[in-house]
Predict the structure.
Amino acid sequence: MGVKFLGQFLIDQGEVDASHVREALERMEDANPTLGELAIRHGYMTQRDAAQVSAAQRNEDLPFGDMAVEMGFLTSEELVEVLQRQSTQRLPVGEALVQLGYIEPDRLGTLLDAYKADQAAYDVVELDLPDGLVNHRATKYFVELLPRFLTRVARIEAKVGGIEAFTAPPDFAEVCVSVHVTGVRGLEVALAADNDFAEALAMATSGLAPSDLEPEMVADGVGEFLNVLGGNAVSAVTQEGLRVELGPPDYDARLADGWIVELAVGTGRAALVLSTF
Amino acid sequence: MARKINVLLVDDSRTVLAQLERILGGVEDLAIVGMARDGAGAIRMATEAKPELVLLDIVMQGLDGLSALRTIKSMHPSIEVAMVSSVGGDAHKAEEAFRLGACQVLGKPFDSEVIESLVENVRAAVEIRDEGAA
């Protein structure tokens, strides 16, 4: 279940094992241009700029692209473009496995079709988002995948309402947990809920009976659900060729500003609050 | 009789640990030898408990799962480590985990059949290794 990359799918299907995927990744690393090479090739950076970025990476643990933006050698827009070029130009893992002889060439198409069918559950449509959220690619996945995951993980039926400007925390918010998505742009996503919804979610995510559910496990269960939702949203964004990271749940989330997405849920009350940073 | 497999569970969420414990509770000839809530605990318990399999989260407070994976594989190459994480579908994270020696990278929500199948694959690999060492 969940968003996965082709290598994982092929292992799950018993087509290859981890050592085959590891070997394919080595071949891809040899064949694929680095971000710096592509940025130079397209005239966004010079060799000298790239060398300075590499040197700075020895002192600060940042990916090349983020460091290049921080040092002013690339704009955020240029980084997104180069990342997308890198994603489209790279040798795919399926092709690498064929080159290595672990998958028959005429079988790859069938396996790719099966992979696409498996991942179709995570396809989302473009949403009509407020201006402030348009450039946050993770938003559409959080909003669209939320009801699907509530149904699948917790068997809670849910419908998503409109995205409105946030004015005040919802009066029912007894549990509030958030996760941060960082990358070129930052997004905080909070799930605010009453205790009925939070307990139902915690029981579903842990598999524990109500009598075994300690109070601290309720917020933990909501955090884990948000973590699963966020992880799949982030994974889907990376499949688009963008680089984003998900942080661990924050159990002291403060709802301050942004946008609120009301949820019509079968158990209790809940809303999603989206803020940018 | 099947070879007994000792498993270490690592996740910062008690909810996930409870969920994994429930899934693995149904697998015969398997013992959960420890649970850790962060990467540092994972490294310590892997050294002390010597499990055959570690199920390791990626995103955790403190030392993260990929850093812990690197250390565990360098100290104990024979321990199989499977990453079990909500960001398991992030190609960058999954590729890095495979490069560092993970035997599988599983996303969430959990699929209990996939986890059970992973355990059986590890059991088969350990049995072959035992025979080779005998």
About this structure: The mean pLDDT of chain B is 92. Chain B touches chain A through 35 residues (CB under 8 Å).
